[in-house]
Specification:
This protein is mostly helical and 471 residues long. It has 2 domains: 3-354, ABC transporter transmembrane region fold, CATH 1.20.1560; 376-470, P-loop containing nucleotide triphosphate hydrolases (Rossmann fold, 3-Layer(aba) Sandwich). It is 69% helix and 5% strand. The chain is built from 14 helices and 4 strands. It has a 4-stranded antiparallel β-sheet with strand order 2-1-3-4, with no helix packed on it. Strand 1 (376-383) and strand 2 (392-399) form a beta hairpin.
C-alpha cells in the first residue's frame, strides 16, 4: 500500500462520514430558503409572467363548475317541468350547447396558460441547476486539499448530483404548483361564498383538522429528510472508495469487512428514507379522508337547503366540485411543504459546500522570476494535517541548484508531505519555504507549480487521448 493511501486512511474522518454520527434537521430553514430566493431573483420578470399565467389558468378553471351548475339547474328544471306536465316545458338544448362551448373554451385556455407557465418554470429551474453546478465546479478548484482529506469523494459527488437534482426537481414541479394552489384556494373560496355562506362555513370546519394533522406530520418528517440526504452521501462515498481501491481491498481480504460496513450505512439510508417517505405518504390519504367527510356534510346540508328553496340543485353540484377543488390545493400544499423539507436539506448541503473556507488568497503583488535557479530552503517548517497533530517539527534543509536530494524514511514519515508543502498544496503551520530566496507565499500558486515537475505515486488516466493525458 502506497504512502499516500496510508496517509489518506489515517486522516479519514471518524465522524458522520464514517459512522452513524449525529444528524439534525436543517440548521437554519429560513436562511437556506432566503438563499434559494436570491438565486431566483435574476428571473423575477419570468416569475411574474409565471404568476400571471398561473392565476389565469386557475381562474378559467375555477369559473367552470359555476357555469356547469347553471346548466345542471336548467336540465333539472326542464325535466321537472316535463314530468309535471307544464305546457312548453322541456330541456333548452341551445342553452346547454352554449354552456358546453363556453366550458370547452375555458378549459382549453386554462390548459394553454398552464403549459406556458410550466415551460417558463422548467427553463428557470434548469438554469438555476446549471448555475449551482457551475459554482460548485469552480468552488472545488478553490478548496484546499485539506477539505478532501476530511470528506469522502462520494459525499462531494452527492452534493453535485443528488442534492442539486433535488433542488432542481422541487423548483420545476413545486414553484408553479404553489402559485396555482394559492390562486385556486382564494378563487374557490370566493365562488363557494357566492353560492352559500352556510355551506362554506360547514366546509371550512375541516381546515383546522387538516392543518393540525399536516403540521404534525411535517414536524416529524423534517428531520428524516435531512438524515436521508446525508446517508445517501455516505453510501456514495463508501461505494466510490471501495471501488476506487478495489485492488487494495482484494489484496488484504477486506471483502467481508467492507460488506458489513456497507450493510450498516445502507441500513441507515433505508431507515431514514423509509420513515421520511412513509410520513410524507400519510398526508394524501389523511387529506382524502377529511375531504370525504366534507363531501358528506355539504351534501346533506345542500339537500336540506335545496328543499327549502335556499339554493338551486345545480349549485349543490357546483359546490361539491368546489369542495374537491378546495381540498386538492390543501393536499398539494401539504405535499409541497413535505418536499420542501427535503429540498431545504439538500440546498443546505450545497450552500455549506459553497461556503467552505477556501485556499488563502494570493499575494496582491506576486513575485515573478524569469530565470529560476532552483535553490530551495526549508526554514523551521512545522506542519500537521490537523493542528493538534503535528507530523513535521522544525524541519530545515538547504538544497542548492543542480543538487540531487533523496528523502528517505519509513512509510508515513512525511516524505510526500514535504513535496506537497513545497508545491503549496497545504499551508504551513509555522516556518517558511523559500525558492531562490523568495517565500513561496509571494508567488501565485500557478506560477509556483509551473516551475516544478511532479510524478505522483498513484497513476490516474483522464478521459481522452494519450496525448491529452501526457499534456
Amino acid at each position: 500500500m502506497s504512502e499516500r493511501k496510508i496517509e489518506d486512511h489515517r486522516r479519514r474522518p471518524k465522524g458522520p462520514m464514517r459512522g452513524m454520527g449525529r444528524f439534525d434537521k436543517p440548521k437554519n430553514f429560513r436562511e437556506t430558503f432566503r438563499k434559494l430566493l436570491n438565486y431566483l431573483r435574476p428571473y423575477r420578470i419570468k416569475l411574474i409572467i409565471v404568476i400571471v399565467f398561473a392565476i389565469g389558468s386557475a381562474a378559467f378553471s375555477i369559473v367552470g363548475p359555476k357555469i356547469l351548475g347553471k346548466g345542471t339547474t336548467k336540465i333539472f328544471e326542464g325535466l321537472l317541468g316535463k314530468v309535471s306536465g307544464i305546457p312548453g316545458s322541456g330541456i333548452d338544448f341551445q342553452y346547454i350547447g352554449n354552456i358546453i362551448l363556453i366550458l370547452i373554451g375555458l378549459y382549453l385556455t386554462s390548459a394553454l396558460f398552464s403549459y406556458i407557465q410550466g415551460f417558463i418554470v422548467t427553463g428557470v429551474a434548469q438554469r438555476i441547476s446549471y448555475n449551482l453546478r457551475k459554482e460548485i465546479s469552480k468552488k472545488i478548484n478553490r478548496l484546499p486539499l485539506k477539505y478532501f482529506d476530511t470528506n469522502t469523494h462520494g459525499d462531494v459527488l452527492s452534493r453535485v448530483t443528488n442534492d442539486v437534482d433535488t433542488v432542481s426537481q422541487t423548483l420545476n414541479q413545486s414553484m408553479s404548483q404553489i402559485i396555482t394552489s394559492a390562486t385556486t384556494l382564494i378563487g374557490v373560496l370566493i365562488m363557494m361564498i357566492s353560492i352559500s355562506i352556510r355551506m362554506t362555513i360547514a366546509a371550512l370546519l375541516i381546515l383546522p383538522i387538516s392543518m393540525f394533522l399536516v403540521l404534525s406530520i411535517v414536524k416529524r418528517s423534517q428531520k428524516y429528510f435531512k438524515v436521508q440526504q446525508e446517508s445517501l452521501g455516505r453510501v456514495n462515498g463508501h461505494i466510490e472508495e471501495v471501488y476506487g481501491g478495489h485492488n487494495i481491498m482484494k489484496a488484504f481480504n477486506a471483502e467481508e469487512t467492507e460488506i458489513e460496513e456497507f450493510r450498516g450505512i445502507n441500513g441507515d439510508l433505508y431507515n431514514s428514507a423509509w420513515k421520511a417517505q412513509f410520513l410524507s405518504g400519510m398526508m394524501h390519504p389523511i387529506m382524502m379522508f377529511i375531504g370525504n367527510l366534507g363531501y358528506v356534510v355539504v351534501s346533506i346540508l345542500g339537500g336540506w337547503l335545496a328543499i327549502r328553496g335556499a339554493i338551486e340543485v345545480g349549485d349543490i353540484l357546483s359546490f361539491i366540485q368546489y369542495i374537491r377543488s378546495f381540498t386538492q390545493p390543501i393536499a398539494q400544499v401539504a405535499q409541497i411543504s413535505n418536499v420542501l423539507q427535503s429540498t431545504v436539506a439538500a440546498a443546505e448541503r450545497v450552500f455549506e459546500f459553497l461556503e467552505e473556507d477556501e485556499e488563502i488568497e494570493e499575494s496582491e503583488t506576486p513575485v515573478k522570476l524569469k530565470n529560476i535557479e532552483g535553490r530551495v530552503k526549508f526554514e523551521n517548517v512545522i506542519f500537521g494535517y490537523d493542528e493538534d497533530k503535528i507530523i513535521i517539527k522544525n524541519f530545515s534543509a538547504n538544497i542548492e541548484p543542480g543538487q540531487k536530494v533523496a528523502i528517505v524514511g519509513p512509510t508515513g514519515a512525511g516524505k510526500t508531505t514535504i513535496v506537497k508543502l513545497l508545491m503549496r498544496f497545504y499551508e504551513l503551520n509555522e516556518g517558511r519555504i523559500l525558492v531562490d530566496g523568495q517565500d513561496i507565499k509571494d508567488f501565485t500558486r500557478k506560477d509556483l507549480r509551473n516551475n516544478f515537475g511532479m510524478v505522483l505515486q498513484d497513476t490516474w488516466l483522464f478521459s481522452g487521448t494519450i496525448m491529452e493525458n501526457i499534456r
